[in-house]
Amino acid sequence: MTAPPTSRRSPETGTRSVTRRPAPGRGWRWAALAISSALVLTGCSDAGAGGDQLQVVENPERASAAPSPATAAEPAGRVAPVDGVVTDVTTADGVLAAAVSGEDAVRLYDLAEPGAEPRTVSLPGEVTKLTTIDGSVVAAMPDAGAFARIDGAAGEPDVVELDGAPAGVAADGDRTLVALRDAKAVQVLDADDRPVNTLRGELYSADDVLVGGSGAVVLDRLRTAVFSVDLADGTIDEGLRAGQGAVDATTDEYGRVLVTDARNGALLAFDTDPLLLRQRHPVPGGAHGIAYDAKRHVAWVTLTERNQVVGYDVRGGQPEEKFRLPTVRQPDSVTVDERTSRVVIGSAAEEGIQVITP
To answer: What positions belong to coiled-coil segments (predicted)?
Structure first.
């Protein structure tokens, strides 16, 4: 996703003002408690068993989606069949892109007619993460050591090879940031996709990188934490605990990074510069995938234990539930089309792709 703007136009007056933080409320009091209990990484070299304040357990494992029961309600919207497990989805200029487990390809659907036969774009490896940057679909292929930019209209991929396994890609101006999971690093590419720096720190794994407001963060799912990325100094700095099982993240128009905590069932909101936990909102039911609709100011969170997706208005002091809709089984991935606000959900139980117009 492209970096959110740091200013926005008031719908009431038409004037433009700097990005404001959500208004005070009960959520701020929760946030104060969360901040006081969030542990900042000290960077000590002797941080081992019992000394690492961000390590949740002695032998950490990445959190995964809670298993889903059989669907009890008809999924909202339309469902397009898919012969396989959908691992991720994104949209770009009316095109719906889907990654399917075991395929070295991305499927491109017409978002307006998701049931029509998709186009298939062959790639050098299996895709594990999809995002949209500057109108292009970006597919990360860790096993191939590469990512690809795909023009949705032409369906032509531009493959960028890397010395590492990319888990997530983001843009910061004309620079591209790549999270290299196993290398525990973030690589910075210039406008010509040439590596200019590799940033390392106290990461256990670099599972995604996001640019929000005036800063960037890297998501470490093994450590279930987020770390500040200082591009000017070329360093990965302090880290903050992101619940007990951070699984997915996105950004909003207020410059925050929103993270889902699968183990505790929560939605977390972080400022990026400086790195601060601003909100923690309970989301029971197996919180997993997250996407953001900047037009409606709604964060969409999938609940895999309930086969539901919930939409929260995040403009206030605490998230306010606006939508709760039934989904396909095992709704692990979700995205929002920025032009139409359609919500797209991928089933990891071979039940297809769901398109909802809220």
So the answer is: none
Predicted TM-score (pTM) of this structure:
0.86
Q: Residue 153 gets which letter from DSSP?
A: T
| pLDDT by 10s per residue, the chain, length 358 | 444 444 443 333 343 333 334 433 433 334 433 433 344 443 333 334 445 667 666 678 999 999 999 999 999 999 999 999 999 999 999 999 999 999 999 999 999 999 999 999 999 999 999 999 999 999 999 999 999 999 988 899 999 999 999 999 999 999 999 999 999 999 999 999 999 999 999 999 999 999 988 899 999 999 999 999 999 999 999 999 999 999 999 999 999 999 999 999 999 999 998 999 999 999 999 999 999 999 999 999 999 999 999 999 999 889 999 999 999 999 999 999 999 999 999 999 999 999 999 9
What distances in angstroms separate CA 123 from CA 82, 103, 148, one per listed residue? 19, 9, 8
Please report the domains of the chain, with CATH numbers, ordered by start residue. Answer: 26-41+63-356 (2.130.10.10)
The structure tokens 């037009």 sit at: 295
Distance separating alpha carbons of residues 235 and 228, to the nearest angstrom: 9
